[in-house]
Amino acid sequence: MVVFSASLLTVGAVALVPADPPAAVSEGAPGGASTLDRAIRTAEAKLAKGGQDPQAWAELGAAYVEMGRVKADPAYFPKAEEALRKSLAQQADGNGIALAGMGALANARHDFAAARDWGEKAKAALPYNAEVYGVLNDAYTQLGDTAAATDALQRMLDLKPGVSSFTRAAYEFEIHGRVDDARRALDRALADAIDPGDVAFCRNLLGELAFENGDLDTAERHFEAGGRAVPTDTSLQQGKAKVAAARGQTGRALAGYQDLVDRQPNVGNLREYALLLTSAGAPDAAARHYELFEEQRRLEVDSGANVDLEASLVAADRGDAVQALRYAQAEWGRRQPVFVADALAWALHLNGRDAEALTYADRAASTGWRSATFAYHRGMILARLGRNAEAVKALGEALRINPNFSVTDVRTARATLAKLGGAG
């Protein structure tokens, strides 16, 4: 069994069960756009002097990758690839920084198999670089290779305990149902955070963890504290809008999401806003934002990104069972983490293929992740199969984990429980 050394992270008995945020957690180091602006200007100044400078090209490419992630703007990714490939063209051998940058770029584009391959090449060139193992942890986590993900994380912790490694550790704890351990890891990350961007990043993750486990007060406290560190952080704004929606403050939530999608119209924000509009009885406005989702999806695909998972979820939201299944199957063909298993299970359920769906719902539950969404999906599948007692247990679990897990599905969960004779 892999363990964190006690000097790095004291969490319970410090044992880490082999293990995905957010996403997965973020690719690359967290930090604010201002820090990245400085990195880009510094690299550009070096390159303006002329001559070959593979390190400066690699630094510029890595900064573009992170800027694209922070701003949720895929337009940075082609620029990042161009810079990184120029670095590799100037130094083909031993250019670990550029190789790691290509891995981080592939992670950002959701091409996790490519990220794994680039990361392994970077590891061969830079076996003692912690960030390389961060790239590998992200890639293996998203591919569903839990043992390799854990090994990469442990190596990252051994080399450089800090914000990036502790937040990744928290994610591994969370997907194994070890919520208290995940919280302690994030507290340790926050204690190590100095840059305001890192503080906001850690506060957002703590807020998300609290929200996903039904603690609205703690979630709001972290989102507000993060906002004081970086007032313009859109992830924190999304968190506050989500809390408002969960509390029934619909007007405040709608205003928050409208401002959010005006500032950062990424696929996740557009989907959440459309769901809230649907719940609020505004189907025409929801339809417009689903159209904006499709436009953004095409932009991301054109930039080299893969968003089939998100497309499957939106198709399911809109009742397009055939498209939901097509996208989910395509994503499953590329990677098999538990959250893709859950999406595939739900798509199969929507197509009336519940016996198959249950197999994938069981796969989604295999790590012990305390996910209300997973439990809800499993409960609805079991109800369709006539396994009512098990359905009541799963739906009840969903509502116990997080009674506000979805602005739309919570009502369905309660209604199904009442119909089955369970406590709604």
TrEMBL record:
TPR repeats lie at residues 130-163, 372-405. SUPFAM superfamilies: TPR-like. It holds the Pfam family TPR_16. InterPro entries: TPR-like_helical_dom_sf (IPR011990), TPR_2 (IPR013105), TPR_rpt (IPR019734). This is Tetratricopeptide repeat protein. Keywords: Repeat, TPR repeat.
